Amino acid sequence: LACCAKSNMNTQQQHTAPDKNDQREKKRRRFTFLDKGAPFRATVAHQFRKCNRTSTKTTNNLKWFATNIVPHISGALYYDVPTTRTLSKWIDDYDKGLYDDVLAVYREQRIMVQDTQCSVRISASVNSVVFDKLCALDTDELDHYTPEQCFVILDVAQKEVGAPAFYRSVWWAYKMIVRAKKHKRDGGKKRRGKKKIRTIAATILDIFSDDWNGVCPDAKVLEHLGSVEEEVVASDGETKPNATILKKRLDKGEYLSCIKRGEKMREVLDGWCILDSDLDEEICKRIDLESEKANGIDEVHLVFEDKTSVVVSSLPPEDADRMAVLLSKLYSIGGDDDGLGLDKKSFCNAHKMRGRPPRGFMTSFGLLSIIDGGLAKVYANTKVNVDNGECTLFNILGEMEAILHHWLEANHPDVLQQLKKDNKNYYGNIPPYADEGRMISPRIVISWQLGNEPHKDPKDNGLSIVLWVVGKDDIGKVNEDNWRFVFQNLSTGTGNERRDSTSIPLFHGIIIIYDGKKIRHATTISLTNTVNKFGMFHGSTNPQGYKKHNPN
Fold first, then answer.
1. Going edge to edge, which strands form the sheet with 533-538?
2. What pLDDT digit, counting tens, does each position of 495-510 carry?
């Protein structure tokens, strides 16, 4: 039987031995086919490697990528959606360098894959060396340390350990610096006990209902100016030729009758702002987080229908100071030679989206619209990486994103997850300054000296998070300005304790999370501007072109 089987195998091999000419023909056909579809396959694989640089390719990851990302890649209409097996084959060919010539045509370079097991094995030793070197620095030097400087230490550590140069993100560098700061400050000991939170029951009211009795504007800005060093105030009935503000407290009927209503409108009375009417304790609840922190409270939560609708918290002092340094570099406030020197007055692109504020400026960085194929178009101010030596626009924006992302991930991961979910209409596009996987939202809105009218944001898709800091030269100064954030229709308390508006004093490092589509809000205006006041907003909105690209 063995002899017969061996004889049959030899006979079968003789009959099936391929001809060399047939092999050449098949090879020629294969490369002809490869040339026709290579650009699309190379683009798909390159996009996958932008999202995942490890050698691990799970079926779920491939299925999600094929379903959610591939259909929006240019040219996808002419090809069937690849199966997970086919997609895996394309990525393997990409990693082997078969598409390098195709990528070169598009001026792209293959992204090198990282071996997951090797990365895990060496990361602990490399991180330990980096951590020791960071802890060896002086406290003052460490407080101003940047992720770029941390990467220099990383290169030295990898050479000492003998490890290959694996990819590290800006978020990783920021986390290592924060860890070293904590170790030097309190020995790295973990804080005992949970975060102390004060919970307040709240209700979101309709200001057009008879039941609402909250804060109405008490000052009209006569000229929409960016900033005024000292306002000239005219009282009601008084005539002043150079007056910049008319001080008059509107009653509820007069105020509401002048507002244009509509679900898609901001429902704002142009120019009418809050100066100090929110200080009336008979109609407005004051939540002072600084006073609460002095009593051991870390956060204040306002709960509506058993769900937290507003969170009032703050960044650690070292993170808030770092944010102030970055924003001051962005606009070169204080005359820094290493700043970018961007002109605040020329950065007003957010005004078209939200309307020109009565005081201050608003700037949007990041993604603007969705164009053909589901790709994203960026704002003009984000197309070019403004460079001033080691200080670049993308580095500043990227580090600010990383600081806030790290805080959300550590303190409110549910909010971070919801923000990312609300921005799914950007089809996985990320702005050029953001680090992969460490992006809160595809747009950052930065304000300076902002004062605006009570309004709602109908284009918002969900939660927003806003951080306020002062300029780096203003840290520690006594803030004499009126600087508060008012929720006009957020009611608290019952009976005699009921207040239909809520006012929150702002300070360096305060963070507020809220839904601007449901809760009317405003930043108070000030009669003096003694400090530089910045705000940084992350939220979710429908990008321009979204409905045209996906009408359903």
1. 376-378, 359-370, 443-451, 533-538, 464-470, 510-514, 307-314, 299-304, 197-204, 490-492
2. 999 999 999 999 999 9
